[in-house]
Specification:
Length: about 200
């Protein structure tokens, strides 16, 4: 082809001169404004421990995996039945024993449209799951009072893919809010305004 009677040349603005490139999309990872904070009930089940948002920028992005880590202090022990929810529906498998400070990979396989936001929620039972993630020492009792729990998202480099660029999209880390386990105490006492009664048959 000719342009102005001269040979046509490709104008490549990229300094690497490797052809025309598509700008890859990216994901903005944030802690949701309604992520739980404060006190949670020990021994409660299916408790919401953290909420996050993923926003796709520049192109549709498929999120294949979400990496989650739970940190419980002061005794580094496990919880039970960790679950990940994507826009209100569970994705991936239930983690029977949520190992303290270990990364659990949940399979999401969800596409976020460009400019849209996905809501991610993590739930678990605040029950002593033992240590080491294998259920060793697990009980049916709630975790001790005043123990703190923090759920975080772990960064990844190959967990998402741009649907136009077909490039890997990195996901950033995010740290949820600190929750404190509390145990309620129930006391029983006689109502002194009531008289004593006896019955006989």
């Amino acid at each position: 082809p000719l342009k102005d009677s001269a040979a046509f040349t490709l104008v490549d603005a990229d300094a690497s001169a490797d052809g025309t490139n598509i700008n890859n999309g990216n994901i903005t990872v944030s802690v949701a404004t309604d992520s739980p904070t404060g006190n949670v009930a020990s021994a409660a089940t299916n408790v919401s421990l953290a909420k996050f948002t993923y926003k796709a920028n520049g192109e549709d992005i498929k999120v294949t995996y979400v990496n989650v880590s739970m940190n419980k202090e002061a005794t580094d022990s496990d919880l039970k039945n960790g679950k990940l929810y994507w826009n209100g529906s569970q994705v991936g498998s239930t983690d029977a024993y949520v190992e303290d400070q270990a990364t659990v990979v949940y399979t999401a396989n969800q596409v976020i449209k460009a400019g849209e936001t996905a809501n991610i929620e993590y739930r678990a039972d605040l029950i002593h799951g033992g240590t080491g993630g294998a259920g060793s020492g697990a009980t049916s009792a709630g975790i001790p009072a005043d123990q703190t729990v923090v759920v975080s998202l772990v960064a990844g480099t190959t967990d998402a893919t741009g649907q136009s660029s077909l490039a890997n999209v990195s996901t950033a880390a995010a740290i949820g809010k600190t929750l404190t386990a509390k145990t309620g105490l129930l006391s029983v006492a006689k109502n002194v305004s009531m008289a004593n009664y006896t019955t006989s048959i």
